[in-house]
Amino acid sequence: MSRFSLLEYAENYSVLVQMPTGTGKTYVMASVVKWFLYFLFF
Asked: Residue 6 is inside which H or E element, if any?
């Protein structure tokens, strides 16, 4: 996920991500959650 997308989320509180089958949607979502938790608690 690019920083541009994360900045869009910070301004709008919603972002649509469309990825084809087999491109790692679960991995990307887990990375986003990990990123938010890291900055929330540290």
From this structure: helix 3-12
